[in-house]
Amino acid sequence: MKSSDIRIVLVEPSHPGNIGATARAMKNMALDQLVLVRPKLFPHSDATARASGADDVLSRARVVDSIGEAIADCSFVAATTSRDRDPNIRIADVREAAVRIVGEAQRAPAAVLFGAERTGLTNTDLEGAHVLIRIPANPDYLSLNLSMAVQLVAYELFRARGATVVPPEWEMPLATAVEMERLYAHLAEVLEEVDFRDRTQSGTHLMMRIRRFLQRAELDQNEANILRGILTAVQNRRRSAGNK
Fold first, then answer.
1. CA-CA distances (angstroms) from residue 70 to 34, 65, 74, 81, 194?
2. How far, in Å, CA of 189 to CA of 186, rounded?
3. Based on the domain organization, do 107 and 202 belong to the same domain?
4. Residues 217 and 119 both lie in one domain
């Protein structure tokens, strides 16, 4: 997926490993603009190690002295928080916020701010934010690891940019309706032969239930043939036993 004009801004990150893990999370979700505000240790070997192949994102990271510099050309800024804040700043669920960020980034650069591991963002850090992002979590333990928070937000941004799960192309097509009907008829025949009968009052529920769970299984043609082969083997064994 093509990268959009969305930057991830880490404010005073203290652990270089989290910077590397952030770069990896970003690359997973097709984001490539990383800005670091006064990082404690960067560049650092731990950052490179944790990037795990996202060295290109890491190498392009900009290091700046202030949040103002990081977001100077941004028209929309979202900030992450796990604490109650000024009620005058709108708070949005991460999925809702992601849609807004993606939309705004089509017109001008947008940014998402993440605070330091121990303290998060201060009220002063939030002065340039248009919305606060809340990530739903256990109310008894709301604090997320920095790179985990980035991964969750980046994932929602990826979804908001139109990502879809493409069904795999199976080597064998699903069994056709005709093939499934043949299987059901064969199965009903064998059940009758082995005297496995519907014990319900109406006597019609068993095959209906069997049909339902086999339809949920979405058998391919080979699988339907395998089941019919098993049924045929049962019939042949019964016939052989009957001739003895």
1. 10, 8, 9, 18, 75
2. 5
3. no
4. no
